[in-house]
User: Which sequence fits this backbone?
């Protein structure tokens, strides 16, 4: 998988043969995408992780105060309510039924109670049957029958009882503390004291507002016992589902009916039917963080937008530069290749021009001599011996001119053929012809430099479909290089036996193999490594260093392969393998 | 037309001419041979005057041969010049070139093509050499394009190329001399032409020369932009 | 006294014919078909002037010229080449040759140059002798 990705990238980045817009468009897209991805991904991950972490911490932070508040309130309320009950319980145990049924006495007791403890509203004595036989207080409640009332039953069952808040006869919220007493003489009666909820309310709601927490009491059905700033006045419904109850303070995150997120701590108060609720809207706590978060989000988005913008601009520029430079390189190489071709024609033209000069010189001299002889002949008269001798000489000279002319014609014929065929493309060819032709062009040069040109062509060479002009160019380059290698030090250093041999054979599975062998100065492994690279040349100030590079390209495009072996001071062998039929699809060079 | 084709055309043209020259040589030499053989056969005649007349004929043939050879040599030299311009010997081809020599080479190389459209190319003499800072091959290309322009409208005219200067700019003065198709050729050459076959980095233009109706100036300058 | 000319050229037909023409005009030509042969001939006899073709196989024209000049510094050498001018091979051929002519050869030009070369050599020789 990684390998495939690597290959894909390498393919996109290498020097192409042809420039296509799509290639650079996709390159641009990929690079921008990669850069953005690499920059943005960690950023996003970091942001998300930080956010989650912070939220969690915040929640934990939010829990504690509410929790603490609930516990403290719980403790304070249990203490207060416990005292209330104890007070009444004390009275119930300190006095007997007889004592309390005496109304003046009851009155005195009640006044003493009221003077020490705020909040008690009235007091009543209820007998076994449930009738309030004695009453002291602002209401006309003497003789009321409480038989069957739930509170009475509760009281009788549990001994002491604290009611929930209710309006009752009195018309305002109050609670009832009742204590049941069973005397030794078998008398059972209940002392009943009502207390208002002001003090309760005070205790409950004193600390909450400072911490944005709404502390209030509810009963087991969710009816408010004290005022709640969030949910309304006492005796209204809380409007929130009752949390599972435990004496242990439990903090929960809740969404209420109005959709608010709340931190709710709840606990029961022992000895009562109350549930303490401490409610803190999460929103308030979160609000500052939310503010900061939205600012950070803005920065994040801005940052990402900036990254994308900058990436696009930078990558756009980069890829454009790459494209421009690739185009220039391809154009330069195309031009170079053309020049290479050009210098091939030029080289041949030069060769032919020089070659033609020699026969022309010969013709000139012979004609001149012939004229000299004629001048002499006419001067000396027609003495038969001299005359025939001169005439014979004349004849031979003119024969010589004729044969020289033939020689010159052959030379010009070759050049014409070459020029004509430069344009043709794929044809069926006999490769031996091309090799022979090429060697013919370089023969004079070889002879001049004292190198022997040899040919070893197999008998059964099949025909090959290829480009004549390009094959000629390849062979010219290779044989020319071989010649240069052998005659490297100048003709004076050419040893006897210096040769360049061109061989050609056919192998069924491989194709046509053309080898150019020389026993020249050879190449070191270092040179061999770079031999097909452009602008790499071992000829000091001659040549462009592009010969082998272009040759390599041509051979590959013709569907062949080229290999070089060499040993310093021993010589080199260049092998070109060509398929009989060229490939249909352009070959990757 | 790229450089390759330009060179190939000029070379082909030159080589054909070379073959003609060789044909002339062969024929003249052959004639001389025939006469000599004839004379040998008639040796016994001892006709002094006749022999010397034949001798004169032979000499004339051979002089013909030598003239042909000189032409061949000039042609061969022009081919060699062009080969050098094309970088045949690996030397730098972008250096300055001798305009006079280039014009002369062109005249020789394109002679056959000119004859094909009944045009005559003449070289104008200059007192001193004129060097232009442009590759010789580009000069040849521009000359070939001007030639093509004239040939395209029927040729049949005499053109003279002379190296020269216009406003301190080196170039070639093109004169349209006489010929049946003169008017047509003048029509096609008039109006400044920017030659279209110049390679990257070069601009060539043919402009009318001041007030003279049949004279034009071919200039060649390096340019930053590709004008194709 | 007939002038001795050494002709050095690998193109046999050309140099043979040229020798014959020079002979007809009263020169005493000798021929060498290669640089090696030329040096051998030079050791045997010193000519009055040398005509040397630059484009030769085996020992190159430049090499031959150098060796020749080593042997006989004052011997004038007329160089033949196929191109318009002497190629500057960095050997300083131009300094060492008396003159350079192109092929095909105009005989009249060669004759003039031969005469001039011999005259110049004579002047040099006079200058040397104390």
Assistant:
């Amino acid at each position: 998988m990684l390998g495939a990705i690597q290959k894909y990238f390498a393919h996109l980045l290498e020097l192409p043969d042809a420039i296509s817009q799509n290639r650079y468009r996709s390159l641009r897209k990929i690079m921008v995408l990669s850069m953005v991805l690499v920059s943005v991904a960690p950023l996003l991950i970091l942001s998300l992780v930080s956010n989650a972490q912070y939220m969690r911490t915040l929640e934990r932070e939010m829990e504690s105060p509410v929790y603490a508040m609930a516990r403290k309130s719980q403790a304070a309320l249990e203490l207060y309510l416990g005292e209330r009950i104890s007070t009444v319980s004390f009275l119930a145990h300190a006095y007997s039924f007889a004592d309390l049924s005496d109304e003046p006495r009851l009155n005195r007791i009640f006044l003493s109670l009221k003077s020490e403890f705020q909040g008690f509203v009235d007091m009543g004595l209820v007998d076994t049957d449930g009738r309030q036989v004695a009453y002291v207080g602002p209401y006309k409640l003497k003789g009321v029958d409480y038989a069957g009332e739930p509170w009475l039953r509760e009281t009788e069952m549990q001994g002491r009882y604290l009611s929930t808040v209710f309006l009752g006869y009195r018309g305002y919220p109050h609670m009832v503390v009742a204590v049941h007493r069973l005397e030794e003489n078998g008398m059972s009666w209940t002392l009943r004291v009502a207390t208002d909820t002001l003090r309760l309310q005070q205790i409950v709601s004193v600390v909450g507002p400072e911490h944005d927490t709404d502390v209030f009491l509810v009963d087991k059905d969710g009816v408010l016992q004290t005022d709640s700033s969030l949910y309304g006045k006492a005796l209204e419904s809380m409007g929130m589902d009752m949390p599972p109850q435990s004496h242990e303070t439990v903090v929960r995150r809740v969404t209420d009916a109005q959709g608010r997120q709340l931190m709710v701590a709840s606990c029961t108060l022992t000895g009562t039917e109350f549930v303490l609720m401490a409610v803190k809207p999460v929103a308030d706590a979160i609000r500052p963080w939310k503010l900061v978060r939205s600012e950070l989000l803005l920065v994040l988005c801005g940052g990402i937008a900036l990254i994308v913008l900058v990436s696009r601009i930078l990558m756009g520029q980069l890829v454009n530069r790459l494209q421009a430079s690739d185009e220039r390189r391809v154009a330069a190489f195309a031009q170079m290749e053309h020049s290479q071709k050009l210098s091939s024609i030029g080289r041949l033209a030069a060769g032919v021009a020089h070659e033609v000069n020699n026969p022309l010189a010969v013709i000139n001299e012979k004609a001149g001599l012939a004229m000299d002889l004629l001048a002499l002949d006419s001067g000396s008269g027609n003495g038969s011996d001299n005359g025939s001798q001169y005439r014979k000489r004349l004849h031979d000279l003119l024969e010589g001119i004729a044969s020289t002319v033939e020689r010159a014609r052959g030379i010009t014929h070759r050049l014409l053929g070459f020029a004509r065929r430069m344009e043709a493309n794929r044809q069926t060819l006999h490769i031996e012809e091309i090799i022979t032709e090429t060697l013919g062009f370089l023969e004079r040069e070889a002879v001049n430099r004292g190198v022997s040109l040899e040919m070893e062509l197999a008998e059964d060479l099949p025909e090959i479909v290829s480009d004549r002009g390009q094959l000629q160019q390849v062979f010219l380059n290779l044989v020319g290089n071989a010649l240069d290698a052998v005659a490297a030090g100048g003709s004076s250093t050419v040893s006897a036996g210096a040769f360049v041999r061109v061989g050609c054979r056919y192998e069924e599975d491989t194709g046509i193999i053309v080898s150019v062998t020389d026993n020249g100065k050879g190449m070191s492994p270092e040179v061999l490594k770079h031999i097909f690279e452009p602008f790499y040349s071992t000829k000091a100030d001659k040549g462009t260093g592009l010969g082998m590079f272009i040759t390599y390209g041509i051979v590959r495009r013709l569907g062949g392969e080229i290999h070089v072996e060499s040993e310093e001071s021993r010589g080199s062998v260049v092998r070109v393998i060509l398929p009989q039929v060229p490939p249909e699809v352009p070959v990757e060079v | 037309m790229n450089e390759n084709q330009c060179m190939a055309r000029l070379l082909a043209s030159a080589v054909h001419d070379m073959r003609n020259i060789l044909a002339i040589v062969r024929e003249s030499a052959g004639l001389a041979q025939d006469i000599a053989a004839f004379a040998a056969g008639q040796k016994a005649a001892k006709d002094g005057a006749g022999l010397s007349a034949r001798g004169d004929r032979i000499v004339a043939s051979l002089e013909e041969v030598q003239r042909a050879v000189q032409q061949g040599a000039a042609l061969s030299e022009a081919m060699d010049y062009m080969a050098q311009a094309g970088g045949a010997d690996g030397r730098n081809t972008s250096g300055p070139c001798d305009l006079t020599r280039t014009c002369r080479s062109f005249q020789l190389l394109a002679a056959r093509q000119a004859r094909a459209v009944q045009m005559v190319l003449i070289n104008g003499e200059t007192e001193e050499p004129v060097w232009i800072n442009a590759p010789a091959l580009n000069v040849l290309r521009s000359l070939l394009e001007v030639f093509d322009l004239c040939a395209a409208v029927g040729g049949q005219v005499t053109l003279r190329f002379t190296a020269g200067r216009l406003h301190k700019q080196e170039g070639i003065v093109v004169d349209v001399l006489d010929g049946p198709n003169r008017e047509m050729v003048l029509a096609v050459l008039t109006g400044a032409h920017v030659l279209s076959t110049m390679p990257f980095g070069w601009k060539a233009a043919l402009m009318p020369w001041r007030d003279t109706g049949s004279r034009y100036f071919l200039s060649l300058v390096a340019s930053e932009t590709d004008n194709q | 006294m007939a002038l001795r000319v050494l002709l050095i050229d690998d193109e046999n037909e050309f140099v043979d014919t040229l020798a014959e023409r020079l002979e007809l005009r009263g020169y005493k030509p000798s021929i060498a078909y290669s640089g090696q042969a030329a040096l051998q001939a030079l050791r045997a006899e010193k000519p009055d002037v040398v005509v040397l073709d630059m484009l030769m196989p085996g020992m190159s024209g430049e090499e031959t010229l150098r060796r020749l000049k080593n042997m006989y510094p004052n011997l004038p050498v007329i160089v033949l080449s196929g191109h318009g001018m002497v190629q500057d091979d960095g050997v300083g051929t131009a300094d060492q040759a008396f003159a350079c002519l192109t092929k095909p050869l105009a005989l009249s030009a060669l004759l003039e140059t031969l005469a001039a070369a011999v005259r110049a050599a004579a002047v040099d020789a006079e200058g040397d002798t104390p």
About this structure: Chain B touches chain A through 51 residues (CB under 8 Å). The mean pLDDT of chain B is 78. Strands of chain B lie at 97-98, 120-123, 131-132, 158-166, 169-176, 193-194, 202-208, 215-222. The two ends of chain B are 12 Å apart (CA to CA).
